[in-house]
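Open question from group meeting: does this chain pack into something compact, or does most of it stay loose? Before anyone orders reagents, we agreed to write out a predicted structure and look at it together. Recording both the input and the output here so the notebook holds the full record.
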Amino acid sequence: NVSSRNEIELHGAISSVNTDSKTFALRGLTVSYAGTVDFQRGTATNLVNGAQVEVKGVAAATGTTVVAKKIKFED
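Structure tokens returned:
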């Protein structure tokens, strides 16, 4: 789901969690949670490989990175 404002919504299991750079991989994209993120049903400590999440954010200029604005943990 990409709107005219580069907003993106992704769902799935995360991988390649890097707590130093505050990034993880989801659906072939790198998601950054280094900025202000609204966490729902969890916190940054719940970001582990295999966690099911819904990410809403904005595509960075690179096109391969999403800057997360909201991360919701799913069952």
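Observations to bring back to the group:
Residues 32 and 51 are 15 Å apart (CA to CA).
DSSP finds no helices and seven strands in the chain.
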